[in-house]
Hints:
This protein is an alpha/beta fold.
Amino acid sequence: xxxxxxxxxxxxxxxxxxxxxxxxxxxxxxxxxxxxxxxxxxxxxxxxxxxxxxxxxxxxxxxxxxxxxxxxxxxxxxxxxxxxxxxxxxxxxxxxxxxxxxxxxxxxxxxxxxxxxxxxxxxxxxxxxxxxxxxxxxxxxxxxxxxxxxxxxxxxxxxxxxxxxxxxxxxxxxxxxxxxxxxxxxxxxxxxxxxxxxxxxxxxxxxxxxxxxxxxxxxxxxxxxxxxxxxxxxxxxxxxxxxxxxxxxxxxxxxxxxxxxxxxxxxxxx
Length: 270
């Protein structure tokens, strides 16, 4: 049997339909071919697709870090776009005025627009639990929709970047968020928490996160840069792994290396 590329196979099916004897109902085959042609091109790594959910704090305390956050986020996207493999990114910013504003929705990482100061404008308070709860609900909806349409499974990577404590949620409380994160982690989602101006590990524990996926940074431009470097490096390593390895390492996202914290230690010891 000779090898045949997907389009040649589809063309062969079309020719067979055209030559079908009278009285044969070919409509089911025609619908199947239309679905094949509408689908995204397949690849050997379809089973290793990643869906990145990036939750970005834009509360008022982030005001002095606007350019640093924008630059770090855009560099993160640029580095992820340069990597092989299929990944899509949804970016959401949150504050007291809008606890869940989707700014980029399920873009391929190669097609994510630049974050700008016209989009990222810090204000208000920090409804962290509401933002996380809504994000998980949106991710659940996407998973169901893709399953219904027989689309390839995606590994779920959720990154939370904040500089303040929860202080304004109305829909979700800590216990609800803890249960949601625990349940999704049991389903092999990976949750990452980057925090400043707080005990990030203590706050992470309250929400069900593990130490291997939590990192502290300082609310300074230099530390924000280190934080994004760390997230990008670890995200790239995550994407390089097989699905089985990702799930096995879901509690060790940073792989034992936390660049922002290392930089803070070096600065303290000078």
